[in-house]
């Protein structure tokens, strides 16, 4: 049996970067894996990670259910996958504490996400320790594969290092997880600045397309997306800004980047932008339709999260007990 674990922070509006880099991949995995073999899939809403940067408490609570509804609207099926909220299972924070004691300070200092985020926010200890909590999310479930965007690769390498270190110190306990990062479109960039990642925390509303944006907003954001001084798509030109738009296109048509480039060669930028906006509108309209059906059903959403939490706890509590025994904790 194979275990797959991933998560998204309920720290803002989910955008097409989250969809392409994470959610869409999860849904494909869920629908193929469950047919082939008996996989166990966990998709977490990582609220303890979200509070490593300031959050408005009332907004955060609402976002947790919003993200749950968006998981389901995007195709995560609670009958096939376990959806739960990280802070509802205290085992995550407890294992993180234990792993802290074998984590070299210098290794956390090298994390690029920490370097980026600590420039934008006041650096607190939680932000520094973020990757250790992520390692405990993954290791508690004997995870084999972690489907994420490119930006999370370094955190998964740390997770593997911590697992190896723990195993060699205390005996075989943790499985070593593998990152699962798709080849194309693993890193979607801002529509306004192709040098920075499309991110929930971007202050420029034109930089991201959110999963709940209206058709009008989507069309306007694509229209205003930066390109370059060219006018027609040509393989010789190939600016970062244009490649980013073609990456988004290729993800939404489910084709390789190269294949999409060939198909689009010679089209004018404005013609291409119309095609791209049509595609995004078509997919997001379907997600939004399902979202509207489920988002108001708070008690159904809470039942799904409770069921997910109980299933998760059942598995994680055994692993945590084993860890505590090995480390020599308790009575
Ligand atoms: P923030 O920028 O506020 O830290 P985020 O938008 O990066 O948040 P996360 O919750 O950190 O969102 O990421 C959830 C998942 O989405 C992760 O697997 C991450 O790799 C993926 N992801 C996030 N942004 C992108 C992006 N621009 N391109 C591809 N994948 C992405
Ligand atoms: N750090 C991740 C979110 C995350 C995660 C995880 C992803 C927290 N715990 C465990 C995969 C597995 C991010 O996307 N920023």
Say which CATH homologous superfamily of the largest domain is assigned.
HUPs
**Average of per-residue pLDDT values:** 95
Question: Strand share of the residues?
Answer: 5-15%
Helical coverage, percent range: 55-70%
Rg computed from alpha carbons, rounded to a whole number of angstroms:
21 Å
The CATH architecture of the largest domain can be given as 3-Layer(aba) Sandwich
Sum up the overall morphology in one term.
Answer: globular
Ends: how far apart?
34 Å
* Hetero ligands: adenosine-5'-triphosphate, L-tryptophanamide
Strands side by side in the biggest sheet: 1-2-3
The SS-based structural class is mainly alpha
What is the number of helices?
13
Question: What is the H/E string?
Answer: EHEHHEHHHHEHEHHHHH
Tell me the CATH topology of the largest domain.
Rossmann fold
Topology:
Elements: E1 3-8, H1 16-36, E2 40-45, H2 47-50, H3 57-74, E3 81-85, H4 91-100, H5 105-109, H6 112-120, H7 125-139, E4 145-147, H8 153-170, E5 178-180, H9 215-224, H10 240-253, H11 257-264, H12 269-295, H13 298-327
Parallel strand pairs: 1-2, 2-3, 4-5
Helix pairs in contact: 3-12, 4-7, 4-13, 7-8, 9-12, 10-11, 10-12
Bound molecules: adenosine-5'-triphosphate and L-tryptophanamide.
L-tryptophanamide (LTN) binds next to strand 1 and helix 7.
